[in-house]
Amino acid sequence: MRTTPDSVLQPSDEVAEALASGAPVVALESTIISHGLPQPRNLEVARELEGIVRAAGAVPATIAVLDGVPRIGLGEVELERIATESGLRKLGQRDLPVAAALKASGATTVSATSFLAACAGIRVFATGGLGGVHRGWTEDQDESADLDTLARTRITVVCAGVKSILDVPATLQRLETRGVTVAGYRTDTFPGFYLHSSGQPIEWRIESPADAAEIMRGQDALGGQETALIVANPVPVDQQLDPELHDRVLAEALAAAERQGVKGQAITPFLLGYLVDGTAGASLEANLAAVRGNVALASRIALSWARP
Q1: Which residue in the list 17, 163, 203, 244 is annotated as catalytic?
Q2: What's the gap between Cα 167 and its chain centre?
Q3: Cβ density class 275-304: b for 16+ within 10 Å, e for less
Q4: Is 29 one of the annotated active-site residues of the chain?
Q5: Is the peptide bond before 201 cis (omega within 30 degrees of 0)?
Q6: 126 - beta bridge partners?
Q7: Pairing label, strands 181-185, 229-232
Q8: Can you point out the beta strands (E) in the chain?
Q9: Digit-coded pLDDT (tens) for 153-202
Q10: Strand 89-91 vs strand 25-28: parallel, antiparallel, or unpaired?
Q11: Whose CA, among 131, 171, 176, 266, lies 20 to 30 Å from 150?
Q12: Do the beta carbons of residue 182 and residue 172 sit within 8 Å?
């Protein structure tokens, strides 16, 4: 297990006590709070997600960097700061040393949250959707840093697949190449983030949180490269975005991005914003439904993992 000196990470008292006693802990990212939702709903959702973890009997550890210090678990004041402070950066793993040196503050993406959670000794992390290989990658070589971090970080990530704006088949191939295990939770196809299914098959299916915990124990027993376990948990069919609406608006968004020359880091927020506007907010509600389900499942996995 990767460890980092206590002087670098600052866990909350609650998280530190839980980790010391072997109690279940679930890591939560902070970009959904600072960059993914409008105020004041972002703070309401942050509290709601932590409440889901607590209701399951686990301890939430929302992760962010404040004044250069990686915080593992946020109190109410820190949550409010992430939800309301202007100019917060979006920090990937590569940005963490710079943020520490310059005493910058920012919300953590999947890559940074996974890395910091693993450093702190947290094994389970819940998020909405992963980054992945972008459409048109053969020209731009545009690939999320999430994939590289997950290929060398021993953590279990519960997600609703990858964002549907991405090249899903290429992303699954990349995960296979990098040795990252993907297991569908009660599904034989990879989830489509806003959609219940992307239509892409996956090789492994699990039926319970205990199954996930057993895979985690198998990872540790076998050793080898410290890769992640992705538990792909689909949004319920009755809470997904209407597939026809999704496909139409996404096609419009991709065409608009092409016309306007939007590429690189700007493409993801552009497309996601277009989907929110073009679906009158329905894509955001589907996203939140997925996140809630992922947090609930991650909490049950953390409980199974914590049991002797």
Answers
A1: 163
A2: 17
A3: bbebbeebbbbbbbbbbbbbbbbbbbbbbb
A4: yes
A5: no
A6: 28, 158
A7: parallel
A8: 10-11, 25-28, 59-66, 69-72, 89-91, 106-108, 124-126, 156-159, 181-185, 204-206, 229-232
A9: 999 999 999 988 888 999 999 999 999 999 999 999 999 999 999 999 99
A10: unpaired
A11: 266
A12: yes
- The predicted model scores a pTM of 0.94
**Which residue matches tokens 């070589």?**
141
29, 85, 90, 207: the active-site residue: 29
CA torsion 127-163-146-50 (nearest 10°) is -10
Beta carbons of 27 and 113 less than 8 angstroms apart: yes
How does pLDDT run across 239-267, given as a tens digit for each residue?
999 999 999 999 999 899 889 988 766 77
| Residue 278 one-letter amino acid | G
In 3-state terms, what secondary structure has residue 75?
A: coil
Give the pLDDT band of residue 145 (cuts 50, 70, 90).
Answer: confident
163 labelled catalytic: yes
**Contact of 102 with 69, CB cutoff 8 Å:** no
